[in-house]
Every structure is written in structure tokens, then in C-alpha cells.
Amino acid sequence: MWRTVAASVRGTSHLQSGAPCQDAHLVGNVGPNLLLVVSDGAGSAAHSQLGSELVCQMSALWLDEQLSMGERLDAEAGPQLVAFLRERLNQKATELQVTPRELACTLSGALLGDGWAWLVQIGDGAIVTEDENGVLNVVFWPDNGEYSNQTYFVTDAPDAAIHALRVEGVPERVALLTDGLHPLALQLAARQPHPPFFGPMFAAIETQQADSVQLAQFLDSPAVNARVNDDKTLILASRR
Amino acid sequence: MTDFSQIPFGLAEFADNPEPRCPVLLLLDNSGSMSGEKLAQLNAGLAAFREDLLADELAAKRCEIAIVSFGPVREVTDFVGVEAFNPPLLEAAGDTPLGAAVARGLSLLRTRKDTIRQNGIGLYRPWVFLITDGAPTDDWEGAAAAIREGEASKSFAFFSVGVDGANMDMLAQLGPRAPLKLSGVKFRELFQWLSSSLKSVSRSTPGDAVKLDSPQGWAEV
Hints:
The structure holds 2 protein chains of 2 kinds.
Chain A: E1 3-9, H1 12-17, E2 23-30, E3 33-40, H2 48-68, H3 77-96, E4 107-112, E5 116-122, E6 126-130, E7 136-138, E8 163-168, E9 173-177, H4 182-185, E10 186-187, E11 192-193, H5 195-207, H6 212-219, H7 222-225, E12 232-238
Antiparallel strand pairs in A: 1-12, 2-3, 3-4, 4-5, 5-8, 6-7, 6-9, 9-12, 10-11
Chain B: E1 22-29, H1 37-54, H2 57-62, E2 63-70, E3 74-81, H3 98-118, E4 127-132, H4 141-152, E5 157-162, H5 168-174, E6 180-182, H6 187-202, E7 219-220
Helix pairs in contact in B: 1-6, 3-4
């Protein structure tokens, strides 16, 4: 039913400084539902690539547990998920003998069910959906705090910065991206998605059988790297 | 050559977004005591500063520079992009109205931040950099209050540098960060450090503090 591609690519600035790719992503099934998660590790945190990986894996685990117990996910599940993730991040931090801040990362997630969807975000990733009328929407506008080079992290976001909601109905197309791609995919001043970006991207997986390897090549292409130098993650999912 | 339209994803068009801006306010002492080698090296440092920033693609697009010199208080340059920045040749002039210079500079900065925001353009936390070699000849306590308030509200990050002859005790009271003492007339090194630090900011992925290089290249430890 769903076609998906996903890739995380190290940004050229990380290449230069020798830092690893601190973005992570996950595409998987939670029961019959499709889960899409992206997480962007804080550049200033030494082990944030471990944080972002952990957040993706543990989000899947927690959601699986919730649904197995028959829980209905809604806005309140946001802080509950975050509490669980913090426990796991704290455990990991203790193991590594570092502070949890060294694992700081953002989170954007979409769980797509049968006639419903649950969406969650902490930080400056973005979830973009397209409905059956072709209207694109950014579910939660990337959360930067006061300055463009700041954001909120799973490790220490205040409650007001934890965004979660349940929607009835399922989008036709869903994209998740970390902030490395925002300058290309979003119209920042207008606070909306850039349709000439998303249209061809979705079409490529719907009509050209494009795969994740080709997506990674695109994300690492000269055209993209000329405009952005941060780590880049993109997940595309389509029901068409 | 493959037909571009046959490359998956090749038809995606990119949005046209302006770069976020990082305002850098320089408050520079050109009082009488700065005459001679001090000002000569400061001027040379400013020219090199521009070249350093220009050499980095992102810093060149994102940094904006304003200069207020004192005394007398003079707005040498209002915020301008690196390419359009004309490094001034400061000349030794009057006394050291540091308080008034800070007030003038912070006012320029406030206006610039409003303009950037009103145009929906991204903003990095601004830098305010004060370089002085003496003691203020005006009331600086008001300036100190404004600096502490700005730091507390994260309106800007304030750094002060004392040149040979500076009243370091006063500078220590001016802002929350310990002032740095310039070693000799190593202005060139100071501005290299500043441009390098700004390049880190231009590249910063989401985070709160940017790790700055040690200023040991130009500061007395």
C-alpha cells in the first residue's frame, strides 16, 4: 500500500570537520501501521549520532508497546514518549560516562494507521503531508526557538516544545526531513512547503521506481551540496 | 550524457530562501592613546577580517558587520554584508566615551534585528565585540547594565578585549564574560580568531553554544 524511500547523508561541513553524520532515520512497521522517524543529533554534542539512532529505535519500540496494549495515541502520548526516550538516553549516557546532553537530538515521527495518523515533533525537523486534493502542509513548523542556529532537543525540551497530534484520515503522501533540507524544500518566510520540490520527488518514487540508493545520491549531489552543508535526511512515503 | 529528466529526483526544484544573518557589532576605541602602531595594526586587522570572511562561502553570505568607533562616538558603518563592507582606516581622535558607544551600537543592533525579523529572514545570535585600550571617560555603568540585560535575555553575545593600557577591572564589570587582554598589537590574529569563530557559527547545526577556538593565538593567558 505504501511506497517508501529513505536516506540520511552526511553534510559537507561534517565531512570537512571529520564529524560523522548525526542524522538518523527509521522506516518500519508497527503492527499493520507504517512508522517513519527522523532525528537530527546536535552539532555541539559529541555523541549525538548515538542519540539520534537510539531515539529512532526506541520510538518504534515504545509505539509498538503502546499499540500492543491497545492504547489510542493522541496528543498526550507526546510527553509520554519523550519521558520514555529520556530514560533510555539517560541509561545510554551513563553507560558512555557522558552527560545526556552529549546525546541531544531532535525528533519528527509519523505513524500511519488505518484511517488515522499520529504525528510527533520536538525540534526543527519537518513533517510534510499531502492530502487527496494535492494540498501540501507542514504539520508542525520547525521549532527553532529564538535563533536559526538553535532548536529544542528530546533531552531537554520543555513541555510546550513537545508537539503531538492524532488526525483522522491518512494523507496520500508524507515526507519527513531534517533541517539540512529546509532551505531547498520549504519556503521559510511564508512558512510553507515548496511544491516544485515535493511534486517531482514523490513522482520519482511513484512512476520511476526510484529507490533509497538513488535518493542518497540525490542528497549528496553537487546541486544540493552547493546550497546546503548540513546533514540531510529525507523520507518519502506515498499511497499512490 | 544521461537525459537529466530521466534521473530520479532530478526534476525537483529548490526553494529560493535568503540566508540567515549573523550580525557582528564592532565597538572600536580610536582615542588618542590608540595612535601609532595600535591603530595601524587594528586597521590592518580589519582589512584581513573582511578577506577571511569572504574566503568562506557561508560566512560571506551570512555575516553582517557594523562598526561604532569612539571617541567621539561615530557610526563608521551600519550593518552591511561582508562583500559590501569597506574596512575603514581609523585615526586617533578624542577621548573614550565607551558608555555612549555601547549605547549607540546596541541601538543599531536592535534596529537591525527587527529589520531582519520583519523580513522573515533567519537570525543567528549576534556578536558584540568591544576593543579598548584605556579607561572610559564617560558613565559606563548604564552600558554595563544594558550588556548584562542583553546577555541574560540572550539578545547578543558580548566579548571585550583590552589592549595595552586598558582598565581590565572595568572591563570585567562590563559583561558576564571575563575580558581578554590583547598580546601586544596582535590585532591580525585577533581578527583571524574572530572570523574563524564566525565560520563555526555559520556552520552550526542546531545547538546552544558553539565551541570557540582558544584565543591563545592573540590573547595573554
